[in-house]
Fold:
Amino acid sequence: MDKLIIEGGIALNGIVKAGGAKNSVLPLMAATILAEGSHQFSNVPHLRDVITMQRLLTHLGVASELTNNNLHLTSNGLQSHDAPYDLVKTMRASVLVLGPLLARWGKARVSLPGGCAIGARPIDLHLDALKKMGAQIEIKEGYVEATASKLKGAEIQFNIVTVTGTENIMMAAALAEGTTILKNAAREPEVVDLAHYLIKMGAEIEGAGTGTIVIRGMQNLKPAAHTVIADRIEAATFLIAGVITGGEVTVENCPPFLLETLLQHLKKSGCKIKTDSESITVSASERLKSIDIATSPFPGFVTDMQAQFMALMSLARGTSRITETIFENRFQHALELKRLGADISVEGHTAIVKGVEKLSGAPLMATDLRASASLILAGLAAEGTTIVDRAYHIDRGYEKIEEKLTLLGAKISRTNQ
Ligand code: UD1
Structure:
């Protein structure tokens, strides 16, 4: 199993380009099921999750090729309507094929995702919404079996904000009969990016980016071309890599509005922030001040940056209370950070992080994608050598992370010993 070896304590400085957003490209790829023909996406990151989605789509009848950062998908009609357990268990976003399969072909069989390192993450809201649109849904042998002769528009009130739930139903509604209104919809930029692509495909969608999205269903959609938005989580991780090591990193190809809330928090803790329309620079002239955060749906503090922010706060001056409101088990990195000397205690959904003056390198175990980013950040700041085991987690969501960090001056390498 791959491990990352980090020699910490070196300030990272320089410029890095953000790649395309993982959480945008996955739903965009699922949307190709909705229209036969040739779909083109640029700014596509080379990630393990993209490869998993390619494998799933190939199985369903959508061929694809990723060259450089351009992804060309050809949707050729239905080969299978089955998303098997083997693929879904490695990537929960596989569930995004459910809505498009049902809307386009009237049937879908998708493995239930099961438990997950960061929480239960059920898909009941996706299923309730599809039922409201007229789908018949049964759970058999661990699979969701859904059929619908024609989905019908409906008014759907999500009782929890769900990102992939909003995306799944928006895609289904684009080919349904009549109008669908999604209330308490997710407002994440990746939802908006998907809406933009669906509109290019001929869909009529209003309100993406607000809590109410209105979708008028069409008889047919057509393929189109699209550039994936920047990965705000990757960008933010690099900005924190700069500041946690006492350096200054600029991330290009990332419009600052994607990270407004995070930047406000960094500023509050003492960071200096410079932005222009497509780039962000963060630095700090002295040790940061601890601040409290609580995760929440967009535009709140993004849960996918909670672990990385905890690494930053573990070296700040004072005590920070970090509250996780989206996932019930998203503090596994806390125990690993303690192995580096961080002073963290967890009380229910809140981690209390008392800043220490220094961390020292140690062997660590990554438990999930964003936790592994947090451990890498802490390792970059720690004195001595940190080894992060189970590096495969990081490859799900960060393209060439060692190369990008090396360009900024980090000493990081990979081994499979
Ligand atoms: C997406 C992101 C993930 C991010 C998360 C929250 C993708 C591919 N993944 O995950 O990176 O961390 O949003 O911003 O975009 N819930 C239910 N029932 C449902 C659906 C969700 O109870 O049917 C709950 C979940 O357990 C969780 C909360 O709602 O507590 C939000 O989850 P959701 O927004 O659906 O997360 P994902 O879309 O899976």
In short: The chain has a mean pLDDT of 96.
